[in-house]
Design a protein that fits this description.
CATH superfamily of the largest domain: Kinesin motor domain
Organism: Liquidambar formosana
Family: Belongs to the TRAFAC class myosin-kinesin ATPase superfamily. Kinesin family. KIN-4 subfamily.
Number of helices: 19
Pfam family, one: KIF21A_4th
Subunit structure: Homodimer.
Shape: elongated
Bound molecules: adenosine-5'-triphosphate
Keywords: ATP-binding, Cell wall biogenesis/degradation, Coiled coil, Microtubule, Motor protein, Nucleotide-binding
CATH architecture of the largest domain: 3-Layer(aba) Sandwich
Length: 924
C-alpha cells in the first residue's frame, strides 16, 4: 500500500424539521443556522462544521453531492470510505441514511450511493472490470448479527419484544478479526455478490426489513441496533503509459487491482430511559446502545484531542464491538464523513448540544486514507507518480511567472464571489423582511380607508342634524361592520321618513288650499240659490207679464180715449201715455234683470261644476293622505320593530360584552398568575442554573490550579488536605446542583407540556370556529375552551405562546448547563475522578473527611426525621382533636334536633287538648 495522506473526518449537521409530536408539545425551534455559514447556534453555544443541512442551512438534497459523492468517487480510486449517521433517538438518522423503508427511503443517502455507483460503473465498464459485494450487519446488545442471512428467522414480533431477526442456534456467531496488516474483517458474515442496482437494492431492502426496531416514546420505529451496510468494490483495470504532451494511451503497462470498502453506518440513537419511556427489554437495549455510543465517544475523544494524540494516549477501540468495527473509519485508513442528525426542538436541547459537541470533537480526528491496491501495482504506481511529478515540475518551470497572476485572479474571483453571495443574502433578507412587513402595511392602509369611510359617514350624519343617533357609541364585542350597517339603515330610514313627511306636508298643503277654495263655495247654498234665482226669475216674469198686461190695458184705454177725443180724455190719454212709457221702461228693466238672473244662473252652474271637481280632488288628496299615513305607520312600525330587535341585540351584545369583559379580566388574572408562577419557577431554575455554571467554571479553574500545582511546587501536607476537602465539597455541590437543575428541568418540561397541550386545544377549537364548525364534543378540554369567546381565546393563545417562549428559553439555558456538566463529568470520568489523590495519606484523609461529612449528614437527616416524626405526632394529635370536636358537634346537633322534636310534640299535645276542650264545650 502507498503512503497515507492526512485527512480530517468531515462533519455535516443535518437538522430535521419539527415533527408532529414536537409540534403537539408546543416545542420551539431553538437551532439557528448562521446565514451563509456552516455554523449552528443554540442559546449561547456556537459550533462550526463542514456543512449544515436543513432548517435555514443548505437544502438536504445537496447533501449527497457535497458530502457523499466525493467518497463514492474515491472508491473508484481505491479509497475506503465511511458515512456515519449519529444523533439522539428520533433525530432522523434512518431517514437520512435511507435504511428505514419509510418516508425518507428514496431520498436517503444509501439509495443515492447505489445509483451513483452503478452509473459510474456503466461509464467505466469498457476499460475496467468490476466486482461488487455487499454485507449488512447489525450490532444488537453487543452481538453482531447478519441481516442478509436468509437462514435466520424472518421478520416477526419476536418473543423478546422487538421486531427483527433472531440468530439461528447452531450457526456460528460473527467474529471481528484483525488481519496481519491491521485490517478489520468480519468472519462469518455473508458477502453477497451483486452485479445490478436491483440486486443491491434487494439486499438493502432485505436487511432493512430484518433490522431490529421497536417503539419508544420518542420514535415509534426506533432502531435498536447499530447497522452497517458495506459495499466492497473491486476493480481490475489495464494500465497504459502516456507520453508528455500526448494524452492518448500508448504503451500497455499491465493491470492494476484496487479494492475499496464503503461503510454506511446508521447508529442507534442515544437515549435517556426517562424520556423514551423504555422499560424491560427496551431499557436493556438502551443501556447497550448508550454503552456502545459512550465507547465511540471515548474513541472520538481520544482521537479528537490533539494533546492526547500527541501524547499517544491509548485509543479504546476494543471497548465495544462498534468501535472495533469502526477502527479503520476513525483515525485509520478511510475517508470518513459523519452526519450529526439533530432535532431543532427546544425540548431536545441537551441531547442536541451533546450531539454537536460529539460531532465537533470528531472533526479533529485525522484519518490516513490510502489507495488500496496490491503491492506490485502499488510500487508501479509510486514510480508513475514520481514520473508525473517530474513532468509537472518541468511544465511548471516552463510557465513560471504566470502562476502568480493566476493566483491573483483566483483571489479576485473568490472575493467577487464572496461579495456576490453577501449581496444575494442581503437581497434575500430584504425580500423576506418585505414579505413580512407588507401585509401589515396593507392592513394598515385598509384600516385607514375604513376609518376615513366611517368618519365620512359620521360627518354626513352630523351635517343632517342626526347627532342624537348613537353613532359614536362603541359596544364591547360589536363588529364595526355591523355598526356601520346599523347606522346606514337608520340613516336610510330617517331620509325616507323625511321624504314621506315632505310628501305628506305637500298633500296637506294641497288639501288646505283646496279646502279653502272649497270654502268659497261652501258658504252658498246652491239649491236655495237656484230656487231663489228661479223664484226671482218667475217673479220678474210675472211682474213683466203684469206690467205687459197693464201696458196692454192702458194701450186699449188710450185707443178708446183717442176715439172719444174730448179734453178730459186727452188729459187722461196723456197720463196713460206717460204711464205706458214708464211701464215700457219698467218692462225693459225687468227684461234686463231677467237676463242678468239667467246669466247668474249659468255662472252658478259653472261654479257648481268647479266645486264638484274640487270636491273630487279633495277626496282624492284625502285618500292619498290616508294611504301615505298608513304607509308611514307601517314603516314606522317596521322600523320600531327593527329598532327594538336591534336594541335587544345590542343589549345582548352589551351583556355578552360584559361577560367577555368579565371573562377577559378573569383570563388576564389567570394569565398574570400563571405567568408569575412560571417566572418564579424560571427564576428559581435560572438561579440553580447560574450557580451550576459558576461551580462548573470554578471547577475548570480549580482543575487548572491543580495542574499548575502539580507541575510546579507540591503543596504542603495541610494545605493539600484542605484543598482536597474543598475539591470534594465542590464536587458534591456540583452533583447536588446538577440534580437540582435536572429536577427543575423535568418540572419545567411538565409545565411546558401542560401549556402546550392547552395551546394545541385552543388552536384546534379556534380553527374549528374559523371554519364555522363546532369542535368535537367530549374531547378532553374542548368543551371548556369552546365556551370561551373568540377574543378570550385569542388572548389566551397569545399569553400561552408568550409563556411557552419563556419556558423554552429556560429549558434551553438549563439544558445547556446540564450538557456542559455531563460533558465535564464524562471528561472527568475518563481521567479518573480520584487522580487528585497522590498518596495513601491523601486518600485516608479524604476518606476520613468523607466519613465525617457522611456522619454529619446522617445525623442531620436523623434530626430532621425526628422533627418530622414529632410533627407527625402533633399532626396526629391535632387530627384526633379535630375528630373529637367533630363528634361532639354531631352530638350537639343530634341533641338539638331531639329537643326540637320534643318541643314540637309538646306543642301539638297542647293544641290537641285545646281542640278537645273546644269540642267538649260545643257538645256540652
Ligand atoms: N429530514 C426529515 N424531514 C422530515 N421528517 C424527518 C426527517 N428526518 C426524520 N424525520 C422523521 O422523524 C422521525 C424519526 O426519524 P428516524 O426514525 O429517522 O430517527 P432515528 O434518528 O433513526 O431514530 P432512532 O435512533 O430511534 O432509530 C420519523 O418519523 C421521520 O420520518
Amino acid at each position: 500500500m502507498e503512503a497515507a495522506e492526512d485527512c480530517c473526518v468531515k462533519v455535516a449537521v443535518h437538522i430535521r424539521p419539527l415533527i408532529g409530536d414536537e409540534r403537539l408539545q408546543g416545542c420551539k425551534d431553538c437551532v439557528t443556522v448562521v446565514p451563509g455559514k456552516p455554523q449552528v447556534q443554540i442559546g449561547t453555544h456556537s459550533f462550526t462544521f463542514d456543512h449544515v443541512y436543513g432548517s435555514t442551512g443548505s437544502p438536504s438534497s445537496a447533501m449527497f453531492e457535497e458530502c457523499i459523492a466525493p467518497l463514492v468517487d474515491g472508491l473508484f480510486h481505491g479509497y475506503n470510505a465511511t458515512v456515519l449517521a449519529y444523533g439522539q433517538t428520533g433525530s432522523g438518522k434512518t431517514y437520512t441514511m435511507g435504511t428505514g423503508f419509510k418516508d425518507g427511503y428514496q431520498t436517503g443517502l444509501i439509495p443515492q450511493v447505489m445509483n451513483s455507483l452503478f452509473n459510474t460503473i456503466e461509464t467505466l465498464k469498457h476499460q475496467t472490470e468490476f466486482q461488487l459485494h455487499v454485507s449488512f450487519i447489525e450490532i444488537l446488545k453487543e452481538e453482531v448479527r447478519d441481516l442478509l442471512d436468509s437462514t435466520s428467522m424472518s421478520k416477526s414480533e419476536s418473543s423478546n419484544g422487538h421486531v427483527g431477526k433472531v440468530t439461528v442456534p447452531g450457526r456460528l456467531p460473527i467474529q471481528i478479526r484483525e488481519t496481519s496488516n491491521g485490517v478489520i474483517t468480519l468472519a462469518g458474515s455473508i458477502e453477497v455478490a451483486v452485479s445490478t442496482l436491483k440486486e443491491m437494492a434487494a439486499c438493502l431492502e432485505q436487511g432493512s426489513l430484518s433490522r431490529a426496531t421497536g417503539s419508544t416514546n420518542m420514535n415509534n420505529q426506533s432502531s435498536r441496533s447499530h447497522a452497517i451496510f458495506t459495499i466492497t468494490l473491486e476493480q481490475m483495470r489495464k494500465l497504459h503509459s502516456t507520453s508528455p504532451g500526448n494524452n492518448s494511451p500508448n504503451e500497455d503497462m499491465g493491470e492494476e487491482y484496487l479494492c475499496a470498502k464503503l461503510h454506511l453506518v446508521d447508529l442507534a440513537g442515544s437515549e435517556r430511559a426517562k424520556r423514551t419511556g423504555s422499560d424491560g427489554i427496551r431499557f436493556k437495549e438502551g443501556i447497550h446502545i448508550n454503552k456502545g455510543l459512550l465507547a465511540l465517544g471515548n474513541v472520538i475523544s481520544a482521537l479528537g484531542d490533539e494533546k492526547k494524540r500527541k501524547e499517544g494516549v491509548h485509543v479504546p477501540y476494543r471497548d465495544s464491538k462498534l468501535t472495533r468495527l469502526l477502527q479503520d473509519s476513525l483515525g485509520g485508513n478511510s475517508k470518513t464523513v459523519m452526519i450529526a442528525c439533530i432535532s431543532p426542538a427546544d425540548i431536545n436541547t441537551e441531547e442536541t448540544l451533546n450531539t454537536l459537541k460529539y460531532a465537533n470533537r470528531a472533526r479533529n480526528i485525522q484519518n490516513k486514507p490510502v489507495v488500496n491496491r496490491d503491492l506490485i501495482t502499488n510500487d508501479m504506481q509510486k514510480m508513475r507518480q514520481q514520473l508525473e511529478f517530474l513532468q509537472a515540475e518541468l511544465c511548471a518551470r516552463g510557465r513560471g511567472a504566470s502562476s502568480d497572476e493566476v493566483q491573483v485572479l483566483k483571489d479576485r474571483i473568490a472575493w467577487l464571489e464572496a461579495t456576490n453571495a453577501k449581496l444575494c443574502h442581503e437581497l434575500h433578507e430584504y425580500r423576506s423582511r418585505r414579505a413580512v412587513v407588507d401585509p401589515y402595511e396593507i392592513d394598515d392602509q385598509e384600516s385607514k380607508i375604513c376609518l376615513v369611510k366611517s368618519d365620512g359617514l359620521k360627518r354626513g350624519l352630523q351635517s343632517m342634524d342626526l347627532l342624537d343617533y348613537p353613532v359614536g357609541e362603541s359596544i364591547t364585542g360589536e363588529n364595526p361592520g355591523e355598526i356601520d350597517e346599523e347606522v346606514t339603515k337608520e340613516l336610510e330610514y330617517v331620509l325616507w321618513q323625511n321624504t314621506m313627511d315632505k310628501e305628506l306636508n305637500e298633500l296637506n298643503q294641497r288639501l288646505e288650499q283646496k279646502e279653502s277654495e272649497m270654502k268659497l263655495f261652501g258658504g252658498i247654498d246652491t239649491e236655495s240659490l237656484k230656487q231663489h234665482f228661479g223664484k226671482k226669475i218667475t217673479e220678474v216674469e210675472e211682474e213683466k207679464r203684469a206690467v205687459q198686461q197693464e201696458r196692454d190695458r192702458l194701450l186699449a184705454e188710450v185707443e178708446n180715449l183717442a176715439a172719444a177725443s174730448d179734453g178730459q180724455t186727452q188729459k187722461m190719454q196723456d197720463v196713460h201715455s206717460q204711464k205706458l212709457k214708464a211701464l215700457e221702461a219698467q218692462i225693459i228693466d225687468l227684461k234686463k234683470k231677467q237676463e242678468n238672473q239667467v246669466q247668474l244662473l249659468k255662472q252658478k252652474q259653472k261654479s257648481d261644476e268647479a266645486a264638484k271637481r274640487l270636491q273630487d280632488e279633495i277626496q282624492c288628496i284625502k285618500a292619498q293622505k290616508v294611504q301615505l299615513q298608513h304607509k308611514i305607520k307601517q314603516e314606522a312600525e317596521q322600523f320600531r320593530q327593527w329598532k327594538a330587535s336591534r336594541e335587544k341585540e345590542l343589549l345582548q351584545l352589551r351583556k355578552e360584552g360584559r361577560r367577555n369583559d368579565y371573562e377577559r379580566h378573569k383570563l388576564l388574572a389567570l394569565n398574570q398568575r400563571q405567568k408569575m408562577v412560571l417566572q418564579r419557577k424560571t427564576e428559581e431554575a435560572a438561579m440553580a442554573t447560574k450557580r451550576l455554571k459558576e461551580l462548573l467554571e470554578a471547577r475548570k479553574s480549580s482543575a487548572r490550579d491543580n495542574s499548575v500545582n502539580c507541575n510546579g511546587h507540591s503543596p504542603t501536607g495541610q494545605s493539600n488536605e484542605k484543598s482536597l476537602q474543598r475539591w470534594l465539597d465542590h464536587e458534591l455541590e456540583v452533583m447536588v446542583k446538577v440534580h437540582e437543575v435536572r429536577f427543575e428541568y423535568e418540572k419545567q418540561s411538565q409545565v411546558r407540556a401542560a401549556l402546550a397541550e392547552e395551546l394545541a386545544i385552543l388552536k384546534e377549537v379556534d380553527q374549528f370556529s374559523f371554519d364555522g364548525l363546532s369542535p368535537p364534543r367530549g374531547k378532553n378540554g374542548h368543551s371548556r375552551v369552546s365556551s370561551m369567546s373568540s377574543n378570550a381565546r385569542l388572548t389566551r393563545i397569545a399569553s400561552l405562546e408568550n409563556m411557552l417562549s419563556i419556558s423554552s428559553n429556560a429549558l434551553v439555558a438549563m439544558a445547556s448547563q446540564l450538557s456542559e456538566a455531563e460533558e465535564r463529568e464524562r471528561a472527568f470520568t475518563g481521567r479518573g475522578r480520584w487522580n487528585q489523590l497522590r498518596s495513601m495519606g491523601d486518600a485516608k484523609n479524604l476518606l476520613q473527611y468523607m466519613f465525617n461529612a457522611a456522619g454529619d449528614a446522617r445525623c442531620q437527616l436523623w434530626e430532621k426525621e425526628m422533627q418530622i416524626m414529632e410533627m407527625k405526632g402533633q399532626l396526629n394529635e391535632l387530627v384526633t382533636l379535630l375528630r373529637q370536636s367533630e363528634a361532639q358537634r354531631k352530638e350537639i346537633v343530634k341533641e338539638q334536633k331531639l329537643r326540637e322534636q320534643a318541643v314540637a310534640i309538646a306543642l301539638s299535645t297542647v293544641k290537641f287538648r285545646e281542640v278537645t276542650k273546644f269540642i267538649e264545650t260545643l257538645c256540652g
